[in-house]
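Help!! Second protein's tokens look totally different from the first
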Amino acid sequence: MTETDMTLIDLLQKHDGRREIIGLCVGPSEAETFRTEFLRSLKGRGFDGVKL
């Protein structure tokens, strides 16, 4: 990891109020392609509430 890397963490809040990490990814800076691929990976795993 470098100073310019970015970490994306996606949380899911359950009905009982608990939170769960459902996605974690480290990539180059704040590149739009990196963020888009992260969201697509969540959508590909069945999280249909993810909007690109």
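Here's the second one for comparison:
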Amino acid sequence: MLDTRELLISRGIQVTGAGRDLKEARRAAIVEKNGVKVAYLGYTSVAAAGSEAGPDKPG
């Protein structure tokens, strides 16, 4: 998951809902076009138990 995240970021694609820790996973992807700014958040309720990000845990 972290490899995929880094690949997307290296290609200029913003990522949300996954990260090296909880703070990074909760960071919004913000897109601005023609003066309109939209923030995307990524959450799920169907992930495998224990796959969620934590304060010092990727997810």
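Reply: Different proteins will give different token patterns, so don't panic. The helical segments are 2-10, 22-25.
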